[in-house]
Design brief:
The chain is mostly helical. The protein contains four helices and no strands.
Length: 87
């Protein structure tokens, strides 16, 4: 169940990224790291991710909160789900 919700939120996050178009360099780096972390989380379901995934999400939220509120909402929801799951 947890992975289904994470996968669903990840798809929403990717959809929102497609809608907003090109990002600045820092934004692109943040998104690349988050995408890799979440992909690894979903692919290696037996492997427990480290806490850097939550820090990466928080850094992304801080970076995008003014210019991309919908993206920030998706990132916040992902962070809440992962945090509630004990990650």
């Amino acid at each position: 169940m947890k992975n289904n919700k994470i996968r669903e939120l990840f798809e929403q996050l990717q959809d929102e990224l497609e809608r907003i178009g090109p990002l600045d360099e820092k934004g692109r780096d943040l998104v690349d790291h988050i995408t890799a972390d979440i992909t690894n989380l979903l692919d290696d379901s037996g492997k427990q991710p480290d806490e850097t995934i939550l820090q990466g999400l928080q850094d992304s939220i801080d970076h995008f909160k003014i210019e991309h509120p919908k993206l920030t909402m998706a990132l916040s929801e992902m962070m809440s789900i992962l945090s509630n799951a004990g990650i």
